[in-house]
Amino acid sequence: MSEQTEPYRIDPAGGCPHALNARLRERGAVAEVVLPGGVPGAVVLGHEELKELLGHPDVAKSARHFTALQEGAIARDWPLRAFADAQGMHTADDEDHRRLRSLVSSAFTARRVEALRPRVEALTAELLDDLARAATEAPDGVADLRTHVALPLPMSVICELLGVDPEHRGRLHELSYKVIIATDTTPAEAMAAVKELVELMGTIAAARRERPGDDLTSALIQAREADGDRLSEAELGGTMRLMLVAGHETTLNLITNAVRALCTHRDQLALVQEGKATWNDVVDETLRWDGPVSWFPFRYPTRDLRLAGTLVPRGTPVLAGYTAAGRDARAYGPDADRFDLTRPGSARNLSFGHGAHYCLGAPLARMEATIALEQLFTRFPDLDLAVPEAELPHQKSFIGNSVETLPVRLTR
């Protein structure tokens, strides 16, 4: 890679990524970085370059292609080791990936997702009642939209799909945030959270073994026990964790970021309320302009790879820079930094990935977000942020991209 500039040392505390993305894009579409723990890596920042990376036949997801890891140069307590050590379809390639993906893909067909619509609509209405109660009971009339709507909606839906009992859901979110999203945790905290999450998912699987139901976990267990060659115990746990985390963290951030965008761009909200734009337009433009995932680990070139003129050596851990690609002016025009529901081409965004690993849950996430946003602003058309947007605390992460809380007033 280039020797002309010092590689950017990633700040584990993360923060809003957009100013950093703009600075790094000035260096080029691919930037050399130093990951927490002093591990050399790269991030792909350009839209076309990221699309090429995500679909490239010589780029793998399995950490057996991670040179430094295979050579023993990565510490056991490396904070990002959970991403390299995970087993599941998100870290599998080729036939292994197709095998694992086939086991869960039937749960996310268009027909199966559409069948969930009445449940998502009913649950959203219940959660808006809860939001209204919280605002009424608060002395200042303020309630946290993340706590009352944006989190429990996708968390409840994915847990119902997986057959997770309600008493586990709060702790599952806390642990998945620590393991996957938060990047400012100490190695000891990260390892303890991984251990507890693995144990808790084991408890959930054991409950479904005792009491099988019409849920995805029971189906995976049945596949494992009917033909162990199709799914190992480690792959079962890894697939359950992937479904849980991907099934709620990204949608939580998507709903949050969309509400923030609409509250700070009332002219764009008016377009939807006047029928000049749709809630699907809101979701597409939010995914592009302020996507729920910023820089996601890891992909590994299986040979020396040249992207946009930059050489990325074989075995380098590469981050997918989704928020950077979403504001690439070469792809979205010179005003790519502007939130615009009438922008042509927003649906081309890469926030759900591209190629063989395109997110299976994308249709469900889109449905949850459009239903939540439509019901929210239909019931509370004057809903607004309770504090200036700039004062909202950003997630302490370079992986997740959102704020930690979203205090709102339901009336002006």
UniProtKB/TrEMBL annotation:
SUPFAM superfamilies hit by this protein: Cytochrome P450 (SSF48264)
Domain of life per record: Bacteria
Claim: Oxidoreductase is one of the keywords in the record: yes
InterPro entries found in the cross-reference section: Cyt_P450, Cyt_P450_B, Cyt_P450_CS, Cyt_P450_sf
Keyword Metal-binding: yes
Signal peptide limits: none
Key words, A-Z: Heme, Iron, Metal-binding, Monooxygenase, Oxidoreductase
UniProt cross-references to CDD domains, sorted A to Z: CYP107-like
Entry's family note: Belongs to the cytochrome P450 family.
Protein name: Cytochrome P450
